Amino acid sequence: MIEQVRIGLIVVAIALGLFFTFVSATGVIRLPDVFSRAHTASQADTLGAGFALAAVALTFGWEPVTVKTVLLLVFIFVTNPTAAHAIARAAYEEGIEPWTTGDDRR
């Protein structure tokens, strides 16, 4: 019974990871400017990687590789938003204007 619940959680975590990764990729392709692309890349991609790594940790159980997976998860949670902030700040300092509702460019 417990093993079936664990497998169910693994499947749900993988499905959520795939969903958020797909949303992130779609957002990077479809959104109009660097600021909104950086936002979707940092938010949705972090969630996608987080759920995928959570599935890996659940799969291996209490193994040394699980500690490495959790450390990788913490590293991703710290670096993805930091990198997106650095990209957005560099774009702002270069004078790139954010897309607004009245703009007709894509």
TrEMBL record:
The keyword Chloroplast belongs to this UniProt entry's keyword annotation: no
Transmembrane segments: 7-29, 49-78
Matches recorded under InterPro entries: PhaG_MnhG_YufB
Keywords: Membrane, Transmembrane, Transmembrane helix
GO molecular function ontology, one term from the record: sodium:proton antiporter activity
Keyword Membrane in record: yes
Full protein name: Multisubunit sodium/proton antiporter, MrpG subunit
Species name: Halohasta litchfieldiae
